[in-house]
Amino acid sequence: MAERMQKFVSIGQSMPEKRAAEARAGDFHEIYADFIAQKATEQASRCAQCGVPFCQTHCPLQNNIPDWLKLTAEGRLREAYEISAATNPMPEVCGRICPQDRLCEGACVIEQSAHGAVTIGAVEKYLTDTAWREGWVAPIKARAERSESVGVIGAGPAGLAGAERLRQRGYEVTVYDRHDRIGGLLVYGIPNFKLEKEVVERRARRLIDGGVKFELNCNVGETISFAELRAKHDAVLIATGVYKPKPLNAPNDRSVVKALDYLITANRVGLGDEVAEFTSGALNAKDRRVVVIGGGDTAMDCVRTARRQGAKSVTCLYRRDKPNMPGSQREVGHAEEEGVDFDWLSAPKSVRAGKSPAVKAVRMQLGPPDESGRQTPQEQPDSAYEVPGDLIIAALGFDAEDLSDWGVDLMRWGAVKADPLSFATSEPGVYAAGDIVRGASLVVWAIREGRDAADAMHAYIQSQAKVAAQ
C-alpha cells in the first residue's frame, strides 16, 4: 500500500481544470473539466488511509471513501465505483454539488496537516461518470417481486433515493411530484453550471427502466388528496422538500422576487421551455442591476445565474461577514471570480420601487455568538445607505408548506414530525425524510434520509405481513 498511497507529501493537491471566469460566466455549462485517468489516480494516491477515516465519519452517507480512493489509485476503477455506489444512489450528483469543503474534504486529516485535502468530490464524480460511459451502472433489479405498494411524495433527492431502495426490495413504487420533470430541485433549483440536467435525467431513466412509476404534474392535496393516496398504498414516504420562501419582512417588499421563482424560471429556459416571465424580462437579469439578499447556497446560485444572464451588475447583501456565511466558501470564491460584488455586514430595511428602485440598507456589526455558534449581527447606528437595484431577489431560506390536513403531527414551524431514527410519523405506515423533516439542508442529507427511511418502511411492511399471517 505504501507504494501506491500516502503520497500527499510528494504530490500536491490538484483540482480538475477550472474554466476561466470570463468564459464560464457567459454560459451555463459546468465550470470544471473532467479528471483524466492519470490525474484521478494521482490525486487518489494522496490519501493517507487513516485508521479512523474522518472523511467517512463526516460524510452523511458514511461513504467508504478510503476504500474507493485506494482502488482508484490502483486503477481498479470498476470496483471503486461499485463501492462508491453501494452507499450512495447518486454519487455523481454528490461529487458535483456537495460542499466537500464543509464535509469530507474539510475533515480530511491531510487538510488539517496543511497538505491540502484529497480532492474526494472530483474523484467521486470521475468514477461515476466513467461508470456511465463504460456501462458499469447496473440496472435496478428487484431481489424478489412483492405484492405490496409504496407511494413516495416528491421526486427530489430524498424521494428518488427512497424509491430506488424500495424498488430494489421488490415493492411496487409510485412517485408523485408537482413538477413535469423528475428530479425536484435537482432539476429546477440547482443551475446547470453546478449540475447539468443530463446527469439527473439518466438517473431518472434508470429508475423508470427499473420499474418505478412516476405521476408527474400531480400536486398532492390538490390533484389527489393525501387520504386517497394513503388508501392506495401499504406505506407512504413524504419527501416533498420545503418550498415556501421565508419573507423579507421589509416595507415595499412586494417588488422583491423570490429566489426559487427566479431559479426555476432560469432552469426552465435552459431546458428549452417558453417562460412568459423570462420573455417579458420580469425574471431575466439581462442588462439589469441585480441585488441578491442572503448568504446561503441559494443566494450563490442566484448571483451566479444573474451573471450568466448578462446582468449589468450583481451585488450580494449579507448581514454577517464572509467567514460567517452559511453557504459554501468554495461557491463564494467562484462567484467572486465571476465578477459578483459582496456587500458584507449589510441588512435590508426597506425596498424602494418605481423609477429609481433600490434596497435601503444599514451597516451591521458582529456581537456575541448565538446558539449556532455564529456571531450575532447588530445594527450600527446612523449607518443607513442605499444599493440601487432593478431586480431585487430574496434568498433567505425556505419553510414548510401547509400540510395540516395530511393527518400527521407537525412541528411548530410546520415541518413533519418524524422519529429521528425510524423516520416514522404519527400516522402508522407514513414516513417522512429530507428537508420536510430537517428544514432546508443539503442534498446529501436528503439522500441519506430517503435511503434510511426506505429501510424502515420495509421493516414496517414486513412486520405488518407477519401480523396478518398469524
CATH class of the largest domain: Alpha Beta
Strand order of the largest sheet: 3-2-1-4-16
Rg, rounded, reads 23 Å
CATH superfamily of the largest domain: FAD/NAD(P)-binding domain
Class based on secondary structure composition and strand pairing: alpha/beta
- Helix content, binned percent: 25-40%
Distance separating the two termini: 54 Å
CATH topology of the largest domain: FAD/NAD(P)-binding domain
Q: What can be said about the biggest beta sheet?
A: 5 strands, parallel
Nearest-integer average pLDDT: 95
Quick one: how many beta strands?
A: 16
Shape: globular
Low-confidence stretches: none
- Total of helices: 19
The structural domain count equals: 3
- Taken as a percent bin, the fraction of beta residues is 15-25%
CATH architecture of the largest domain: 3-Layer(bba) Sandwich
Notes on the structure:
By secondary structure, this protein is an alpha/beta fold. The N and C termini lie far apart (54 Å). Strand 10 and strand 11 form a beta hairpin. It has a 5-stranded parallel β-sheet, sandwiched between helices. The chain has 19 helices and 16 strands. The chain has 3 domains: 114 residues, Fumarate Reductase Iron-sulfur Protein, Chain B, domain 2 (Orthogonal Bundle); 166 residues, FAD/NAD(P)-binding domain, CATH 3.50.50.60; 150 residues, FAD/NAD(P)-binding domain. The model has no long low-confidence stretch (mean pLDDT 95).
Helix and strand arrangement:
Layout: H1 21-24, H2 37-44, H3 54-57, H4 65-73, H5 77-87, H6 91-97, H7 104-107, H8 109-112, H9 120-134, E1 149-153, H10 157-168, E2 172-176, H11 185-188, H12 197-209, E3 213-215, H13 226-232, E4 235-238, E5 244-245, E6 257-258, H14 259-270, H15 276-279, E7 289-293, H16 297-308, E8 313-317, H17 329-337, E9 341-343, E10 346-352, E11 358-369, E12 375-379, E13 385-388, E14 391-394, E15 398-399, E16 430-432, H18 435-438, H19 443-469
Parallel strand pairs: 1-2, 1-4, 2-3, 4-16, 6-14, 7-8, 7-14, 8-9
Antiparallel strand pairs: 5-15, 10-11, 11-12, 11-13
